[in-house]
Design goal:
The chain has helices at 15-25, 44-49, 68-79, 91-113, 124-145, 161-175, 190-199, 203-212, and strands spanning 5-9, 29-33, 57-60, 63-66. The chain is of the alpha+beta class. The protein has a 4-stranded mixed beta sheet, covered by helices on one side. A hairpin with a 2-residue loop joins strand 3 (57-60) and strand 4. Helix 1 runs parallel beside helix 3, helix 1 (15-25) runs antiparallel to helix 6 and helix 4 runs antiparallel to helix 5. The longest helix has 23 residues, at 91-113.
Length: 228
Amino acid sequence: MATPYVLYYAPDNASLIVRLALEELNVDYRSVLIDRRINAHLSDAYRKLNPAARIPTLETPDGPISETAAILLWLADRHGHLLPSINHKLRGAALNWLFFISNTIHAEMTILFYSDRYAPNSAIPALRKALKKRLNLHLEILEKQASPRLSSWLGGEIPSALDLYIAAIIRWLQIYPTPDGIGLNLTKIPRLRDICYRLESRPSVLAFCKAENIKQQPFTQPELPFTT
């Protein structure tokens, strides 16, 4: 039987969130490296799968899907796990915060990391200062949502798509911003920190670390990927 999914990934890119989801769902998949060092994501072959030339892309029996939140939502609906079902009373709330992570936190983090793409050099220091403040505020907002009302879907015993996504964000905000970081202090976001701690003991995270050459405890004690 053919493997139903193919994950096109780059190490420590947003594809790691999809890898974690596939591992949590315990479904068969294979992964294909898209080497950004040689701009493989800009190749004609990859653009046929993902015209935006972004990572990740997931090939499915229904065709390729890109954009991390879209992939997570599709997988959750297809397999009945990771997000509330369509008629669940917390469906709307869970989707609200999934897209808050995707469209607000992740999007603004990307601008912080690649500020030169969005502003002239003279404006970059001010832009980064504003983004660091905003990102810390966004995390504070999400910290308050990791409460009993959403406990099944944000910080619950069984990981959700929200947990997987925010753990990756927290990882990146500790190791990839400008040299002085954003001043992220995990003790100020204890509920989100605990999500990261719990995930680090999951087989899905161990599989991710092995596949992408990442040191264990990738969210609470993150380091850059090992070089080979």
